[in-house]
Amino acid sequence: MSQEKQESGKSSRGSEGDPITIKKYANRRLYNTATSSYVTLDHLSQMVREGVDFAVFDAKSGEDITRSVLTQIIVEEEGKTGQNLLPISFLRSLIGYYGDNMHRMMLPQYLDLSIRSFSENQEKMRDYMQGTFGTVFPFGPLEEMGKKNMEMFERTMQMFSPFPTGESPPDSKGSSSQGGAEKVSELEEQLAEMQKKLQALRKG
């Protein structure tokens, strides 16, 4: 009996709510222990969209390789025509952060919070627009707002770099905090402007 079949009889979840276990074998095939079947990166991508949590482990070593597999899914998606979500400027900035200890400690948490906030705001905007316009959906204005959201997200990411090119570190914590406060205030103004546009759309 093969190793995959032997494992199919085992529970894929330790307890309710635990992620599904996906095993990756030497032949690069992915095995879903919950369904006792082989899956592809496309299958895993669909599971992510459906909110199904899973963890990928190397079948031989037991190492958790979820991060590398998710990264591979992103590379596959970015390679598809019309599926590009990551701006080149964002990718360049992200690559530049590798090797910097401070960014390595802080950037992952910052990115996680930023994308969660972005997702929540998008959901609220979608609900608001659907409640306002019903089935008649203004695709043009929404597309424009989506672009502005992405631009805002990029500007937020740039905020994380405390010392722009050509500038020296601040002399005191006070000056650093003041600069951060100004940038936060800037973002608040941009959000207020977006709210005004939404209200104008509603009145229109």
Please count the helical segments: 7
Strand order of the largest sheet: 3-2-1-4
Strand runs, count: 4
Percent range of helical residues: 55-70%
Cα separation of the termini:
67 Å
N to C succession of SSEs: HEEEHEHHHHH
Q: List low-pLDDT spans.
A: 4-15, 162-169
Q: What coarse outline follows from CA principal-axis ratios?
A: globular
**Major β-sheet annotation:** 4 strands, mixed
- Beta-strand content estimate: 5-15%
Rg, rounded, reads 22 Å
Instruction: Give the tally of structural domains.
Output: 2
Counting helices, strands and paired strands, the structural category is alpha+beta
Question: Describe it for me?
Answer:
The protein is α+β, with helices and mostly antiparallel strands and 204 residues long. The chain has 2 domains: 3-78, no CATH class; 88-203, no CATH class. Helix content is 60%, strand content 8%. A 4-stranded mixed beta sheet has the order 3-2-1-4. A hairpin with a 4-residue loop joins strand 2 and strand 3 (37-39). Helix 2 crosses helix 3 and helix 6 runs antiparallel to helix 7. The longest helix has 33 residues, at 101-133. The radius of gyration is 22 Å and the shape is globular. Mean pLDDT is 75; it is low at 4-15 and 162-169.
Write the layout of secondary structure elements.
Elements: H1 3-8, E1 20-24, E2 30-32, E3 37-39, H2 41-49, E4 54-58, H3 66-78, H4 88-97, H5 101-133, H6 139-159, H7 173-203
Parallel strand pairs: 1-4
Antiparallel strand pairs: 1-2, 2-3
